[in-house]
Amino acid sequence: MSNSTTPPKRRGRRQRNELSGREALLSAAIKAFAQHGYEAASLRAIAASAGVDVALCARLFGNKANLWQAVLDTVAETFEQQHRATFAAIDVLADSHPYQAMYQFIEFHTHFTVQNPELSAFSCKKPPCHPNAQPLSNGKLLSPCNDRCLRLSQKLKQPR
């Protein structure tokens, strides 16, 4: 009998209150890519952190680049869904009170960054080294905020 403190690997289906294998992998991957960057993050470490076999990662995503793409899609979709109403309210406010709208946008962005450090870190890390990664990352994560900030800036410049 082993004296190891490592718990035995769980076999079989996950309990209802546990994340699915896909969700667990995406959550672990966000943290790994945010902490270590794309190049240094390993599929084995991500799978271990998620509590799944690395074969599940290969079956669901194929390779690390596809997992990174899935993380990017998940982060962008989650951000957009959670903050659609906030951005709509800021856009409406910008028509009559652009300075207040800019203040709310900055306050929102700061609050989001503090509340979600791994998502913010993921968006700031260097994407994988393939030609479409940087434009894709910028388009999904940075452009929505940058575009809104530019629109607010333009409204601030308009004569009142």
From TrEMBL:
* Gene3D superfamilies reported in the protein's UniProt record: Tetracycline Repressor, domain 2
- InterPro entries from the xrefs? Homeodomain-like_sf, HTH-type_TetR-like_transc_reg, HTH_TetR
Residue intervals annotated as DNA-binding region are 42-61
Is the Transcription keyword given for this protein? yes
Give the keywords, sorted.
Answer: DNA-binding, Transcription, Transcription regulation
Can you give the residue ranges of the HTH tetR-type domain? 19-79
Taxonomically, which superkingdom? Bacteria
Q: What is the protein name given in its UniProt record?
A: TetR/AcrR family transcriptional regulator
User: Which organism's genome codes for this protein?
Assistant: Shewanella dokdonensis
